[in-house]
Write a structure and sequence with these properties.
- The protein is α/β, with parallel strands linked by helices and about 400 residues long.
- The protein folds into three domains: about 200 residues, Rossmann fold, CATH 3.40.50.300; about 70 residues; about 90 residues, Winged helix-like DNA-binding domain superfamily/Winged helix DNA-binding domain (Arc Repressor Mutant, subunit A).
- Helices cover about 55% and strands about 10% of the residues.
- The longest helix has 18 residues.
- It starts with 17 loop residues before the first helix and ends with a helix.
């Protein structure tokens, strides 16, 4: 297994979590559309890519990333393009022939319908929501079902909200629900949504949770301690150094929030230390140095701060001050009462709970250890935040 910190882990580099994978397939088999819910960097995209690369019998899988989409029609265009160019469908002669016929009949101007792809004309735009419905009505999937995985769906909703306004963003949530509820076609497809920000939080802030309440939620939790050890041992097979159990335990204890990204980043820094010092065995001191180097890599963590610019005025000031206080305080936590005092300071008594819930959903803070106190979910992120933002 190779270290992968800059992209989704695929193939032999994907750390399999059988319980999670089976849970997701169980939800799929129940005909549900699904939200894969977790903060950024927990491994949602890698999980989706694994499902795409390893579809079970009677399913075709399409993966679409819509992070850079800023209007509803472009969103549906990306989905339509992905369906017409689906890798798993191409392996079935009858279905690919059905795709070609649909492309010719549904779209009056197609630049190319080849063996490997369908290319749209740049000169004509369609209503791709309607085209999606036409395709689903016409396509013969030979008894299979199409899983349409949308990565960064919540980011797309937020993009549209910022560019076109909240009513347009809500409309995309609503139109997705209408498709999921359309009994003429919904026996042929299911949606799986995920992304680096919380769809539940976005919908809640727009008072539109009713448009996603039909979705099942599959939570991707951090690794257990045993899973963390297994991942470290798999990574060690491809590295030049070794670690004893005590050192592995020390590293996992320091990371605490055991997401694959942080473990792999730490292992990458340990390889650097090995290369520099020619250490055959890594001990606790080297682990401490590796973690210090991790938090010096601004590009690995800056998105956590950049993401917050979507909050405006007092919302933003409240969030930043709360995170700064938690990161710099000696006890590394803030009480619920203190949180309320900051809400009063910024005149947010009516809305601060929504902000608090979004910070929890997006993986910044939690109150898991003590109900009335909030801490950073990740000690690594807390150290980075303290170093970069609160000085």
């Amino acid at each position: 297994m190779k270290i992968t910190t800059g992209q989704a882990a695929r193939g032999d580099n994907f750390f399999k979590r059988p319980i999670l994978i089976n849970k997701l397939w169980r939800k799929i088999d129940s005909d549900s559309s699904i939200i894969i819910s977790a903060p950024r960097r927990v491994g949602k995209t890698s999980l989706m890519r694994y499902i795409e690369d390893n579809p079970r019998e009677k399913y075709y899988v399409v993966y679409v990333i819509t992070e850079s989409v800023y209007d509803e029609n472009k969103y549906y265009k990306e989905i339509v393009k992905a369906i017409l160019n689906c890798d798993s469908i191409r392996k079935r002669d009858k279905v690919i022939n059905s795709i070609r016929d649909i492309a010719k009949n549904v779209f009056k101007s197609i630049d190319e319908v080849g063996i490997d792809s369908v290319k749209f004309s740049k000169n004509i735009e369609y209503n791709y929501y309607d085209k999606f419905i036409e395709i689903m009505r016409s396509i013969d999937l030979e008894g299979h079902k199409l899983i349409i995985m949308i990565d960064e769906f919540a980011q797309t909703i937020e993009n549209i909200q910022q560019k076109e306004g909240t009513p347009y963003a809500v409309h995309l949530l609503q139109s997705n629900r209408v498709l999921r509820q359309n009994s003429d076609i919904n026996n042929k497809f299911q949606f799986i949504y995920t992304g680096s920000i919380s769809l539940e939080g976005i919908a809640r802030r727009m008072d539109s949770s009713k448009f996603i309440n039909d979705l099942d939620i599959v939570k991707v939790t951090p690794l257990s301690e045993s899973e963390g050890k297994n991942l470290v041992n798999e990574l060690l097979k491809g590295l030049d150094f070794s670690m004893d159990d005590d050192t592995i335990n020390h590293m996992l204890s320091e990371i605490k929030w055991l997401i694959p990204f942080y473990i792999q980043l730490a292992m990458d820094k340990l390889q650097d230390i090995y290369d520099e010092d020619n250490l055959c065995i890594i001990h606790n001191k080297s682990v401490d140095i590796a973690i210090k180097r991790m938090i010096e890599e601004n590009n690995k963590f800056s998105s956590w701060q950049e993401r917050l610019v979507v909050y405006k005025n007092n919302d933003y000031k409240f969030i930043i001050e709360v995170l700064n206080i938690i990161s710099t305080s000696e006890v590394k936590k803030i009480s619920y009462n203190e949180m309320y005092n900051y809400a009063v300071k910024y005149d947010l008594c009516e809305t601060y709970k929504d902000l608090l819930n979004t910070l929890i959903d997006d993986g910044y803070i939690n109150n898991d250890d003590e109900e009335k106190f909030y801490t950073f979910t990740s000690p690594i992120l807390r150290m980075w935040w303290c170093k970069k933002n609160a000085n």
